[in-house]
Specification:
Elements: H1 2-6, E1 14-18, E2 22-24, H2 29-33, E3 43-45, H3 46-50, E4 56-60, E5 63-67, E6 72-75, E7 78-81, H4 111-128, H5 133-139, E8 141-145, H6 149-169, E9 179-183, H7 195-208, E10 211-213, E11 220-221, E12 226-227
Parallel strand pairs: 1-4, 8-9, 9-10
Antiparallel strand pairs: 2-3, 5-6, 6-7, 11-12
Helix pairs in contact: 4-5, 6-7
């Protein structure tokens, strides 16, 4: 999107291809996942931007492959010829070799996944109202794997839900039964940031009641039990 914006009003004809018809502002996905923002606050329609740039067009399609010899991008909606190709691949969850985890855990890389997470924790609150106290402990224990920016933000937001929303909107539940555990394989959270930033973040999580488990890796998850 930024490249297309930089090339507007130039002699180049640009086509943006994406499987979605909107651009996602990923740094705020955690707020959609925890109910602080509506999804349309972080989803910006491509066409709203391309409509103002005559030399830029958008096509909603799934890229299947690239034919480098013929200079074609093959999609589920047809083939697009190109002179110069820019591939902006985005990102996907790294399961560190255990791809089977992908079908059992909840990921946070796009808006539909964020909405799934929001639905899941709210449903857990509703279900807990019908369960005895010991079963409520399991329903209200949320485990976040990965102490990068997203993991830290999600953990903190869930802790704020515990202290604010759960206590006020679910008075029948004991909010102290809700637990948030952040699991990180490295010696500290926010490994890409400075040690000072990591220390501040970890102290903040501790003050909110988040249990941070460092130097801890996930071995397996069967859909019910997480083995560390």
């Amino acid at each position: 999107v930024r490249l297309a914006t930089k090339l507007r009003n130039t002699p180049h004809r640009i086509t943006i291809i994406d499987r979605n018809n909107y651009h996602t502002f990923q740094p705020l996905l955690y707020q959609v996942a925890t109910g602080s923002l509506a999804p349309d606050n972080i989803g910006f329609p491509f066409r709203k931007r391309t409509a103002r740039t005559p030399n830029v067009s958008f096509r909603k399609a799934e890229v299947l492959r690239v034919d480098h010899v013929a200079k074609n991008v093959v999609t589920d909606q047809g083939t697009f010829a190109y002179d110069l190709l820019v591939i902006a691949t985005g990102s996907k969850t790294n399961f560190f070799g255990d791809e089977a985890l992908g079908s059992k855990v909840m990921q946070l890389k796009d808006i539909p996944q964020a909405l799934d997470i929001r639905s899941a924790f709210l449903q857990a609150f509703e279900d807990a109202l019908f369960r005895p106290r010991e079963e409520q402990r399991g329903l209200l224990h949320f485990v976040v794997v990965g102490g990068g920016p997203t993991g830290v933000e999600v953990s903190g937001a869930l802790a704020e839900i515990k202290h604010n929303l759960l206590a006020t909107e679910y008075p029948e539940l004991d909010s102290e039964l809700m637990r948030i555990t952040l699991v990180e394989g490295a010696p500290r959270v926010l490994g890409a940031f400075s040690e000072a930033s990591a220390r501040v973040a970890q102290n903040y999580l501790a003050d909110l009641g988040v249990e941070v488990r460092l130097n801890t890796r996930v071995q397996k998850y069967d859909g019910t039990t997480l083995t560390l």
